[in-house]
Amino acid sequence: MQDILGLFKNKDLLNTALTHRSALNENTSTSTQSNERMEFLGDAVLELATTKFLYDNHPEHQEGILTAYRSALVKTETLATVSNEIGLGEELFMSKGEEATGGRTNIGILADSFEALLGAMYLDRGYDVVVEFLTKNLFNKLDEIKEKKLYRDGKSLLQEVVQAKSSDAPRYEVVSEEGPDHDKQFTVAVYIDNKKVAEGVGKSKQVAQQDAARQALESFGQE
User: Do residues 160 and 172 lie in contact, with contact meaning Cβ atoms separated by under 8 Å?
Assistant: First the structure.
């Protein structure tokens, strides 16, 4: 992570990108702002850079599959994985309470902070540096995404598999909700013929349902 932090000329931008909203309550950061506005910018930069990468490197594909690839690359779980790999969580400024409840490994916080880091990098060093960073740390995940078919709509595919066996349609139920309203994590179970076959997690019920569907497909040998 130190080589990434060293990219920044303006340390104030970097500090803001690393500042979780909880840090403002305890003045644990030199920034007077949280990273939420920076995240807003970084999200747009990420979408543009990812779209351009896919457009340039997959001329054989049409909009549908490119959109599926992009969704798999920029989803919360993927961004959190990259954040863990580069050690972003350890650099964040947050309150002691947030840290004590697992804030440094929370997938929502990690994904949001990753986008904030991109926003700060864009302001400080420009678009080309952001693309170089993403190429090295995120876009290289596409091969695995394609190999494991992580870009597919898990719920639709699971329904096709289940209905081919003349079973009832899959049923999804929320098992638990954890975290504050602005940063929920849902656990959802999927049932087939009233038997629980898998569970999934995500920042929304829809994401957790997709994860549960993928887990179920893996258990059926479909992934």
Answer: no
pLDDT tens, residue by residue, 175-188? 999 887 777 889 99
Residue spans of the domains in the chain: they are 2-147, 154-219
Active site residue 115: yes
Residue 195 to residue 193: CA distance in whole angstroms: 5
Assign domain 154-219 to its CATH architecture: 2-Layer Sandwich (3.30)
Alpha-helical (H) ranges within 75-153 are 76-86, 96-100, 107-125, 127-137, 142-147
This prediction has a pTM of 0.77
Cα–Cα dist 182/69, whole Å = 27
Distance (Å, whole) CA 216 – CA 167: 14
Residue in 91, 112, 115, 124 annotated catalytic: 115
- Catalytic one of 43, 91, 98, 124: 43
